[in-house]
Amino acid sequence: MSEKSEKRVIVMPGDLVSTNPRAAGYGTYVENGKVYARVLGLLDKTDTSVRIIPLNGKYVPSPNDVVIGIVREVAGNGWVVDINCPYQAFLPAQENPECRPGKKANDVLDIGDAIIAKVVSIDPKMKVTLTMKDRVCRPIRFGRIVAINPARVPRVIGKKGSMIKLLKSELGIQIVVGQNGLVWISGDRRKVNIAEEAIYIIESEAHTEGLTDRITEFVKRRKEELEKEGTRNG
Amino acid sequence: MEELKLIMDGKRLDGRGFDELRPIKIEVGVLKRADGSCYLEMGRNKVMAAVYGPREVHPKHLADPSKAIVRYRYNMAPFSVEERKRPGPDRRSVEISKVSREALETIIMTEMFPRSAVDIFVEILQADAGSRTACLNAASVALVDAGIPMKGIVTSVAVAKVDGQIVLDPMKEEDNYGEADMPFAFVIRNGKIESIALLQMDGNMTRDEVKQGLELAKKGAMEIYQLQREAIMKKYRTEEEEE
């Protein structure tokens, strides 16, 4: 396996990935001083660390993640939010800046409303607390939400946000990627269509190489088609 | 019954040798709405496995605050056997579900997802002998497909004693008219058999026969493991080729 380090190796649960327990990283476990993979994923191995980039799996909240959620229940002191993970999240009323005294909770956010929020904490009882006191956080009243596999979110964002910057600048639209696999896109309808298609391509080809170049090409081609159509109709 | 010869000229009824498996076909990710899925054929067994989770536990009181619970449902379709099977769980399928669940619980890292559930559903569309082993093989592939953290994977195969001979992976006739059958499930890690996760037996075998059966089952399990692995890898290789 090691001689093929150029190409990404796919590993399965139980595969031995390293004999150095200090290198064990995400997606691995250590037993008797040996490091094994615990999920199906791509092996990312350097001299000092071994980690597995999972190909599938559910989102597990961790503090400071930006997530997109849907309000499932309105309580007196806040909202119960579905954030597409095994645990329900709670957004306390005081964590929503739109909440003012004298305003009822269900006038601010009602059942079925979508929000962009941030995870504050996840306690040992797996109770997730959210906040909306952040610049990116807002209720979603327009635009589109695209659902993808949460394990592929890092590829949609790209290295240091490269992929998302590409889509934003090429198409001139707003995109917020929730760590839980929900992506909010807003802007010109036809351009949003292109972005949605691009995101689905990234999702299905997340484990392949040279993806950014292919997406750049795809977006440019679709934009040209759009412009041609525009001049024909105009 | 005594007339029936299950072994003739060192070959079995379907022409297999004593240590040969029935043909196996595995497809991964066949159900789009499930988190992980697998369709598997093992001889004339046709089974479909779906995995959901980790997800919220309903009813809530079943949730375990220290780990995820695993639920396994082994179910035979009414049309899976010649005589219509009354639908729904019965004594046999409840027992098989329990032992299969316990086999998988040993490899799933349940402590990573407290207060959640991993649901595994396996439907038998067509039954032959050794359907529980086919179901376990399908379920463990579906679990890998769902991205659930595991210590290794489970591979299952049965051995039987027919006409005084220990044979691998019995088919229906050998199961019905044979002297004994013994399903195994192994935990395989890094291409090696680590432990036995399930062992049942129906009938009588001597100590030596059990030993011989274990060796045969180990050999069969390794072959099945390779097929399981290939099937999973193939899913991602074909996706790459689509470029």
General description of the model:
- The complex is a heterodimer of chains A (234) and B (243).
- With 234 residues, chain A is α+β, with helices and mostly antiparallel strands.
- Chain A has helices spanning 105-108, 153-157, 162-171, 189-204, 211-233; strands spanning 10-11, 16-18, 28-31, 34-37, 41-45, 50-54, 66-75, 78-82, 89-92, 114-122, 128-131, 138-140, 144-147, 174-177, 182-186.
- Chain A folds into three domains: 2-54, Beta Barrel (OB fold (Dihydrolipoamide Acetyltransferase, E2P)); 66-140, Nucleic acid-binding proteins (OB fold (Dihydrolipoamide Acetyltransferase, E2P)), CATH 2.40.50.140; 144-233, Ribosomal Protein S8, Chain: A, domain 1 (2-Layer Sandwich).
- In chain A, the strands form four sheets. A five-stranded mixed beta barrel of chain A has the order 7-8-9-11-10. Chain A has a three-stranded antiparallel β-sheet with strand order 1-5-6, with no helix packed on it. Chain A has a three-stranded antiparallel β-sheet with strand order 2-4-3, with no helix packed on it.
- Chain A is flat, with a radius of gyration of 21 Å.
- Mean pLDDT of chain A is 89; it is low at 1-6.
- Chain B is α+β, with helices and mostly antiparallel strands and 243 residues long.
- Chain B has a single domain, classed as GHMP Kinase, N-terminal domain (Ribosomal Protein S5, domain 2), CATH 3.30.230.
- Chain B has helices spanning 91-105, 131-145, 172-177, 207-241, and strands at 7-8, 11-12, 24-28, 36-42, 45-56, 69-76, 116-126, 153-162, 165-168, 180-189, 192-199, 202-203.
- In chain B, strand 6, helix 1 (91-105) and strand 7 (116-126) form a beta-alpha-beta unit.
- The radius of gyration of chain B is 18 Å and the shape is globular.
- The mean pLDDT of chain B is 93.
- Chains A and B meet through loops of A and strand 5 and helix 4 of B.
